[in-house]
């Protein structure tokens, strides 16, 4: 099955922009979805498809994709955005799904 | 608003079977093009897709767990279940149920709160 690789950790100053990347072969065929997970809470979908936000997700969250890399951008990061972020996509084989290794975002 | 809620024992002995149920409210488990999924996260590690079921009963499992996993659905009770047999301490994790949207972009839109299952004697 495919793997999705993310940088383990990134930091961003309050109000600045941070981009999180996710790399994997499956991303050449399928869009990534992105999930925010805070300690003790369930993951929350923040981006899906080409660049879609569920209701209630601030517009500072956006997604993009090129080749085998998907990106999640937080423009004007807020303290409440500090969390772990995971990408996910359908695998190239059968109807399997895979999650990225996760990126811890720290807002300074 | 669809809601999912996991339930089941929080402690399972090694070699025994882990059994969890996910009750769906706010919508019928039989409606729409949804797959009902199980995902887990061991402490300090990332998310791992376990498998999913369609309301027809069709299942797909993570190859790494396939020999030990069974997911079933009970449409009359609006719930689906996970059984993982021959558990070891490596199966200790927070287990989530989630709804998977398919047919266009693929994504998990609703998640349960998660339930911690500890495998220990």
> Which stretches of chain A of 5+ consecutive residues score pLDDT under 50?
none
Separate helix tally of chain A:
0
Largest sheet of chain A: 6 strands, mixed
Q: Quaternary state, please? A: heterodimer
* DSSP strand tally of chain B: 11
Instruction: Tell me the β content of chain B.
Output: over 45%
Structural description of this entry:
The complex is a heterodimer of chains A (108) and B (121). The mean pLDDT of chain A is 95. In chain A, a hairpin with a 6-residue loop joins strand 8 (83-90) and strand 9. Chain A is globular and about 40 Å long. Chain A has 108 residues and is mostly beta strands. In chain A, strands 2, 4, 5, 8, 9 and 10 form a six-stranded mixed sheet that branches. Chain A has a four-stranded antiparallel sheet with strand order 1-3-7-6, with no helix packed on it. Helices cover 0% and strands 45% of the residues of chain A. Chain B is mostly beta strands and 121 residues long. Chain B has strands at residues 3-7, 11-12, 18-25, 34-41, 48-54, 59-61, 69-74, 79-84, 93-101, 107-111, 115-119. In chain B, strands 2, 4, 5, 6, 9, 10 and 11 form a seven-stranded mixed sheet that branches. Chain B has a four-stranded antiparallel sheet with strand order 1-3-8-7, with no helix packed on it. The N and C termini of chain B lie far apart (39 Å). The model of chain B has no long low-confidence stretch (mean pLDDT 95). The A-B interface holds A 1, 30-31, 33, 35, 37, 41-45, 48-50, 52, 54, 86, 88-90, 94-102 and B 37, 39, 46-49, 52, 60, 62-63, 96, 100-101, 104-109, 111-114.
């Amino acid at each position: 099955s495919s793997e999705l690789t993310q940088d383990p950790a990134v930091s961003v100053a309050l109000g600045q922009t941070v981009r999180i990347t996710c790399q994997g072969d499956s991303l050449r065929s399928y869009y990534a979805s992105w999930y925010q997970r805070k300690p003790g809470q369930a993951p929350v979908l923040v981006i899906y498809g080409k660049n879609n936000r569920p209701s209630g997700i601030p517009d500072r969250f956006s997604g993009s994709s090129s080749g085998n890399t998907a990106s999640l951008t937080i423009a004007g990061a807020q303290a409440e955005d500090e969390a772990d972020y995971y990408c996910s996509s359908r695998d190239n084989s059968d109807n399997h799904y895979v999650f990225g290794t996760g990126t811890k975002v720290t807002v300074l | 608003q669809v809601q999912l809620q996991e339930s089941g024992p929080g402690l399972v002995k090694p070699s025994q079977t882990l059994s969890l149920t996910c009750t769906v409210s706010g919508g019928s488990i039989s409606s729409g093009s949804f797959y009902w999924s199980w995902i887990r996260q061991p402490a300090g590690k990332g998310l791992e897709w376990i498998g999913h079921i369609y309301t027809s009963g069709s299942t797909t499992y993570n190859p790494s767990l396939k020999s030990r996993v069974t997911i079933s659905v009970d449409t009359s009770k609006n719930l689906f279940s996970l059984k993982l047999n021959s558990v070891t301490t490596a199966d200790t994790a927070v287990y989530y149920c989630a709804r998977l949207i398919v047919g266009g972009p693929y994504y998990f839109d609703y998640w349960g709160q998660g339930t911690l299952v500890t495998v220990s004697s």
